[in-house]
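Give me structure tokens for this 612-residue protein.
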Amino acid sequence: MSTALTATAFDIRAFLATLTGAPGVYKMLDGNGEVIYVGKAKNLKKRVASHFAQRDNSPKQNAMVARVQAIEVTVTRTEGEALLLENQLIKRHKPRYNINLRDDKSYPYIYVSTHQEFPRLAFHRGSRARPGRFFGPFPSAAAVRDSLKTLQKIFPVRQCEDSYFANRTRPCLQYQIERCTGPCVELIGPEAYGEDVANTLLFLEGRGEALIDRLAQRMEQAALRLEFEKAARYRDQIANLRTVLAKQLVSGEQGDLDMIACAIKGNIACVHVVFIRHGQQIGDRSFFPRMQDEHDAAAILEAFIPQFYLDKEIPRELLLSHGIRDHALFEAVLGQQAKRGVKISWRLRGERAKRLELAQANADYALNAKLASQQTIAERLQSLTEMLGLDEPPSRMECFDISHTQGDQTVASCVVFDRNGPLKSAYRRFNIEGITGGDDYAAMVQALSRRYQRVRAGEIEAPDILFIDGGKGQIHAAAQTLDELGMGNIRIIGIAKGPDRKPGRETLFKAGSSDPIVVEPNNPGSLLIQHIRDEAHRFAITGHRQRRAKAATQSPLQAIAGLGPKRRQQLLRQFGGLRQISHADVDALSSVEGINRQLAQRIYDMFHDHGA
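Here you go.
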């Protein structure tokens, strides 16, 4: 059930007169209909009234109340349901006066394709609906990649893409450096390979000591059979495992838990999370929730926990640096989502207390580093404001760049900066299609069109400044594109490389003006522009390299209907490579087991239609 009242001056008494005392969620709206605050309540009437009755509100809280022109209410059956709904609405509307966790990315996992004859280990982010097993979540992509490197050194399980694996005719470099056993060319059988996979799974499940015992037994058995090379391999695996476990193992812990510490200075807070899975520390990460006003640690943690955990796998325990006001409600809601018990604790002793103190020290350090960085960014923003003759510092800036190799695999990047620096959750890449290779103007127009159609539709916030990595030609193309979309009011600045292409000697051009903007090389505003431009360049190059690498692993044989992985592998073995296949005639192709004449004709046509 929803209730709303709108007026020129909001009449809170009239609204409260009809408001229920049931549990639920309320949304406060300003005169433009924008949601500026979302709250939950065990008793809606009391909670909403408290916003307007408190005389000791901070100036920002009073400013929020003064902007309220409507309140919408949704009644729920329980306070737990209200907490779930509040979390959904905060993530959807990102209200100005709520504590908002800026954490849009799904968390990465290690994926093992256990359903395959020769399973692979891989980095995975996104849906976990595919067959196989997933381990995590990990706090960052770097943590996953570090773990994959470690595993590859101990257990030589393949990590290559399936398309690459299916089309090998000889082992790759990973085999040469003993990081893979060559299953792609049958240098190892499924049974022996499966042993390495089973050991990898034991390690990922946190059963390191059981794994060491198993390897020790096999080492002894191999030595008794006089298989000294195999025994030496087991010995090396045990030594490497002990080194890794010594670094990762958390003394006294066996299950899954997170340690969460909070540090605050003014209206800036840091929440530092240490992730422990199966008794092993898999990483840590600092978060900086956005908030307009000052809040105590309890309020910050009460906002952080549902926003962070309710759409992720929830550990069995959360250890907090500060107490929260209604931990029983949070335990119940998290347990309901996890379908098992979840415990929240903060009065700790012994080793746990010491580890939480270390997490708190990391939170303090990260917060101080953030404050120092923000001070630098604030100085650079102010300098940029003066340099460009703006009335006030820009709150949002975007920069586009194009990357390709001789016109192939073109990628455009868009990076976003706000007053706190890079806003990486808003970064986007665009794979450019349907243009003449090397036409950077057409690539820029396509990327801007795709981006700013969404901006015009209100899906994305419009920037105050659009930076283009290029000179007058790129600026003109960008301005024309935005004019056609009805967004010509956005300020466009071109960053043209200087005559010697050295950083700090760029020339800036403003759309609609032929005169360059004079910039001193070490001006703080100029350094900010360099940072934005370099970030756009880095992001574009990374995307282009990923696209190029993916294209390089695609075999032309994959495009042929009816030619599956086994038949492709058979063809490559019989002929020795793509070059030999491309020169074979239909009769030779159809002589391969499993290749009938119709399929052989399709293979022949594919190569000869492409002039091979």
